[in-house]
Amino acid sequence: MLRRSEWLGFPPIAAPKTPPDPARLEALRMALLGMAGDSEGRKVLGLLRLDAFAAEPPALFDAIAAKVAFVARMS
């Protein structure tokens, strides 16, 4: 049986808590967060069918983590 799931957050872009190159990670973070304010960035967002990237609390993705855990238990 198929059914429509609830709305879920776009999968997160994650990085290590202690990255090998913090400056490079910060540059990537700023590029992603600034895409909506840049014409080339908006083109990329359009290809992804997104409006923007945002920094959100990890708890936003708890529903996705729960589904991953459920699938893992079933296999």
Description:
There is one protein chain. With 75 residues, this protein is mainly α. The chain is built from three helices and no strands. The protein has helices spanning 22-34, 39-48, 62-74. The longest helix is centred in the middle third of the chain and has 13 residues, at 22-34. The chain is flat. The mean pLDDT is 91.
Sum up the structure in keywords.
75 residues; mainly alpha
What portion of residues belong to β-strands? under 5%
Category by helix and strand content? mainly alpha
- Overall mean pLDDT: 91
Quaternary state of the chains: single chain
Number of DSSP strand runs: 0
Total separate domains = 1
Approximate helicity band: 40-55%
Sequence stretches where pLDDT stays below 50 over 5 or more residues: none
In whole angstroms, how far apart are the ends? 18 Å
Radius of gyration: 16 Å
Biggest β-sheet strands, sense, barrel: none
Note the overall shape: flat
How many helices? 3
Order of helical and strand elements? HHH
List the SSEs and their pairings.
Elements lengths: L21 H13 L4 H10 L13 H13 L1
Structure at a glance:
The protein has 75 residues and is mainly alpha-helical.
